[in-house]
Amino acid sequence: MSFLYYALFAGAVVVLDQVTKYLTVANIALYADMPFLPGLLQLTYVQNTGAAFSSFEGQQWLFAAVFGVFTCLLAWEYFKKPMGFTKFERFCIFAIYGGGLGNMIDRLRLGYVVDMIETTFIEFPVFNVADCFITCGCAALMISLLLFNKEFWKDEKKK
After folding, report:
1. Cα separation of 135 and 111, whole Å?
2. Residue range 43-56, pLDDT digits in tens
3. Of these four, 42, 68, 118, 128, which has the most CB atoms within 10 Å of its CB?
4. Using CA of residue 118, residue 133, residue 97, residue 142, what is the dihedral sign?
5. 73-128, pLDDT tens digit by residue?
6. Which of 58, 27, 41, 25 has the alpha carbon at shortest distance from 121?
7. How far, in Å, CA of 105 to CA of 127, rounded?
């Protein structure tokens, strides 16, 4: 499948993420709550300068460095040394990339990430749409690689 389709998918993730963040900032006061799915989720506008549970708070250079390395590795793997990922796994990788890019745009533009989705049934950090794509992309990629893509793990030296 063409790189263009994967890039368009990642772009759609970024657009969805940025639109939800814009709507949050425009309609919810900082740290204010808005009911969304009673008993499950509420919308709470938070400015996050770190990662989950405020880890690495204020370490914007670290996030930028990790994202830059991921970008280089993604380009190298796709164009120079393909590793045998399936189409589904590539979409997972680009979901992760799109989510990372959405958060990186916030970090570079604002100095923090806009988070808005808060669980009300468990204690969990407030997160955003980009975080959903990163988490679901990682989980789906790991499941696919561990359970369905046996070719990925074959050692080429044994042939």
Report:
1. 22
2. 999 999 877 666 67
3. 128
4. positive
5. 988 988 888 888 999 999 999 999 999 999 999 999 999 999 999 999 999 999 99
6. 41
7. 16
